[in-house]
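TA notes, week 10

Several of you asked for a full example with nothing omitted. So below is the full record: structure tokens for the whole chain, then the designed sequence directly under it. When grading your own attempts, check the secondary structure regions first.
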């Protein structure tokens, strides 16, 4: 089986990632077979690594989800429009949170987006579908005030449900090397394998 060609990236990107289909410049010996060594997240393995990645994803999703729900409730938007707004903002904040370190290290916007796109899109999508269903079912989208206990209770239950739904997805994505910037590409950790 043939695997993607290696590309060189500037030295300042050595501890970040190359676009999907390429590997980190700092790791020319990295095994690119699907699932090969991909269950590491800075030395972690398996389900623990997936939990760490899912927590990171949940952080980004919750920022956008909370802002979208707050706008929807404050403006008395319908549940459908509120869900769409919350999902769009969750994607924006989730991608932004993941791309920010790459951009700060000098990677261009398009390569950074390419690096994180598949893994983040799938993970955020699963998380958002479940969170919006739970938020709607528990009445969080129907409250009249952001100070209502039901709003915060629904958001907490939705966050837990979103985490539990995305955790096995992230485990699978890590195992298939589809979350490249979460795949344990730290040189010190790679050398211990």
């Amino acid at each position: 089986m043939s695997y993607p060609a290696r590309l060189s990236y500037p030295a300042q990107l050595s501890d970040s990632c190359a676009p999907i289909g390429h590997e980190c410049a700092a790791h020319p010996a990295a095994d690119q077979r699907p699932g090969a060594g991909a269950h590491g997240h800075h030395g972690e393995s398996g389900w623990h690594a997936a939990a760490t990645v899912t927590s990171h994803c949940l952080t980004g999703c919750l920022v956008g989800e909370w802002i979208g729900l707050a706008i929807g409730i404050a403006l008395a938007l319908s549940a459908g429009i509120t869900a769409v707004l919350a999902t769009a903002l969750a994607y924006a904040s989730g991608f932004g949170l993941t791309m920010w370190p790459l951009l700060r290290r000098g990677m261009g916007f398009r390569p950074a987006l390419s690096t994180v796109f598949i893994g983040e899109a799938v993970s955020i999508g699963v998380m958002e579908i479940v969170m919006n269903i739970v938020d709607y079912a528990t009445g969080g989208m129907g409250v009249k005030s952001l100070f209502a206990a039901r709003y915060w209770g629904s958001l907490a239950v939705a966050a837990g449900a979103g985490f539990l739904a995305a955790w096995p997805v992230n485990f699978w994505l890590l195992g298939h090397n589809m979350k490249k910037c979460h795949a344990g590409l730290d040189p010190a950790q790679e050398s211990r394998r």
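Residues 46-74 form the longest helix (29 residues). Use that as a sanity check on your answer.
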